[in-house]
Specification:
Blueprint lengths: L37 H23 L1 E8 L20 H17 L5 E4 L3 H13 L7 E4 L2 H5 L6 H12 L6 E5 L4 H10 L10 E8 L2 H8 L5 E6 L10
Parallel strand pairs: 1-4, 2-3, 2-4
Antiparallel strand pairs: 1-5, 5-6
Helix pairs in contact: 2-3, 5-6
Length: about 240
């Protein structure tokens, strides 16, 4: 497992000086006030700070859910089209409809969708939105680099991390990234530490905890994401034991 790098949080410390004051050469004008020893103030301050900090961290850390979805099967009828421009086949459209309902049934509906701009991913997304209205409520960004990065060995997982952290907000808990093999299959395997096969219109469901997406990637690293399951169009979703 290769750990991702992240910046450590800034820590603020309160320093209390305990050196006693110099004796006064003149009698005080008024009776001296009672003072709590500095060492007790410091102990009390640190105790409160640690208690409140722990409670805050526990309450704000939550599960982040990542869906890595390949587009449905494309058509090869028009051989003059570039790979980027190939539309879905009839079987691909049926598969996209099936996966849309399965994701809804499982409760894995994204709030943010990051999608390759290839024709088959656009059409897969359109079908998801047509058959499950919740997908229409998600914010969508088309990311052209998702098409090219998938062909580059070993780079997709890190690229996904960068794009997700750029477009996500802390309140967004479920994100779907739509892209291509071999990169999507490779990224799912690297993040989960499990060998994963993603065929067309298969979705890997991954989970990690963190107060933000940046923190979730930092804490889980490569290999620390939990594989919740793999959704397939025409068979039961596969869940690890």
């Amino acid at each position: 497992m290769v750990a991702m790098c992240c910046n450590a949080p800034h820590l603020h410390y309160l320093t209390l000086h305990s050196s006693p004051p110099l004796p006064s050469l003149h009698p005080p004008a008024s009776p001296p006030s009672f003072r709590i020893p500095n060492r007790l103030l410091l102990r009390r301050s640190l105790t409160l700070e640690n208690t409140e900090g722990s409670a805050s961290e526990e309450s704000s850390s939550c599960t982040r859910r990542l869906i890595l979805l390949r587009p449905a099967e494309s058509s090869w009828e028009d051989r003059s089209l570039r790979d980027h421009d190939r539309p879905l086949s009839k079987a691909g459209r049926d598969a996209a409809i099936s996966v849309s309902h399965k994701l809804q049934k499982l409760g894995w509906v994204p709030e943010l969708i990051l999608c390759s701009d290839a024709m088959r991913t656009r059409q897969t997304l359109m079908i998801l939105q047509e058959h499950v209205r919740c997908f229409l409520e998600a914010k969508v960004h088309f990311v052209s680099s998702f098409y090219s990065i998938a062909a580059m060995d070993g780079q997709t997982a890190e690229h996904l991390r960068q794009i997700i952290c750029r477009f996500s907000k802390d309140e967004v808990l479920t994100i779907m990234c739509m892209g291509h093999n071999r990169g999507w299959e490779e990224a799912a395997s690297m993040l989960s530490g499990t060998s994963i096969e993603l065929k067309t219109c298969n979705a890997a469901l991954l989970e990690a905890a963190g107060r933000s997406w940046h923190e979730a990637f930092c804490l889980a690293g490569f290999g620390g994401w939990k594989l919740h399951g793999i959704v397939k169009p025409h068979s039961a979703a596969a869940f690890p034991e």
